[in-house]
Specification:
The protein is an alpha/beta fold. It contains ten helices and nine strands.
Length: 278
């Protein structure tokens, strides 16, 4: 259902999301401090198991890889995927398939977890916990883990168990209605903004959890949602509609922001990391 900003503001889920910060980081277990390892990249020596799909979660893993982490994408053979998104968000990652319906393969994942520092997951609420990989279970396997959970609507409110993706959240939170204007057909934003920004924020949350571990020790749960990101973006306000001259750039106009990489898919021409770290 496409709601206006006013309709969404009255909805109980909007009130629940307003009670949450943009990013939650909660200590869920004790462990000794672990300083960052020496290396030529900010996240050299950091390992992440990426149990996410489509855009938001995978962008967390891609961003970690861009800054030097060893990231392994863990997918399921039975799950559908879109080639172009895997090429985009899988850049810089290792990849494997494990079926979490199979106890032997769940055992393999638990073994991999013992050597991980970050565990991002983006399956529907309760799904992966039902397979034995809740934040508390992962923290017991690997004390000091940064467990990152990305969902659609947030952990609080009547929609906390609802699954969803960027375009649906744009509809429910009033963003599509605001963008549609006088058009009869709903107009979504020209990019999956909630997905990409939530992915960048998830990587930032994971890095912050590792910084806390380095100083104070402990396992941490990092939680984000597309709805929380939508509320934050809307609070920033919009540019005036009459400033003029805004167009979607063509590739040639942003070549200075791109790079090329040799990958198993061949050479790809893509946007370089959006943030550079010393």
């Amino acid at each position: 259902m496409m709601r206006s900003n006013e309709e969404w503001a009255k909805h109980p889920q909007a009130h629940a999301v307003d009670s949450l910060p943009l990013i939650e980081i909660e200590r869920i277990g004790d462990s000794p401090p672990e300083p960052f390892k020496e290396g030529d990249r900010p996240l050299s020596g950091v390992c992440a198991l990426d149990l996410t799909r489509v855009i938001a979660g995978p962008m967390c893993g891609r961003t970690l890889a861009e800054h030097g982490a060893d990231v392994m994408r863990v997918g399921g053979q039975h799950l559908p995927f879109i080639d172009s998104l895997v090429i985009d968000t899988g850049n810089g990652k290792l990849s494997t398939h494990l079926g979490l319906r199979n106890e032997n393969e769940r055992k393999t994942l638990r073994g991999l977890t013992r050597d991980a520092d970050i565990f991002p997951q983006g399956y529907r609420p309760g799904s992966i916990s039902g397979r034995g990989f809740s934040p508390e279970e992962i923290a017991a396997i690997r004390p000091g883990i940064a467990y990152v959970s990305v969902c659609a609507c947030g952990r609080a409110g009547p929609w906390s168990e609802k699954r969803g993706y960027d375009s649906l959240v744009q509809c429910c939170t009033g963003m599509v209605d605001e963008h549609t204007g006088d058009e009869e057909t709903p107009q979504k934003l020209p990019a999956q903004m909630l997905d990409y920004i939530t992915g960048y924020l998830a990587a930032f949350g994971a890095m912050t959890a590792l910084a806390r571990r380095a100083e104070h020790g402990g396992s941490n749960l990092v939680r984000l949602s597309l709805c929380q990101t939508a509320h934050w973006i809307k609070q920033l306000g919009r540019l005036s509609q009459d400033i003029g001259g805004i167009t979607i750039p063509i590739l040639e106009s942003v070549n200075d922001l791109t790079m090329q990489s040799e990958t198993p898919f061949g050479r790809i021409h893509h946007i370089a990391p959006i943030v550079g770290l010393s």
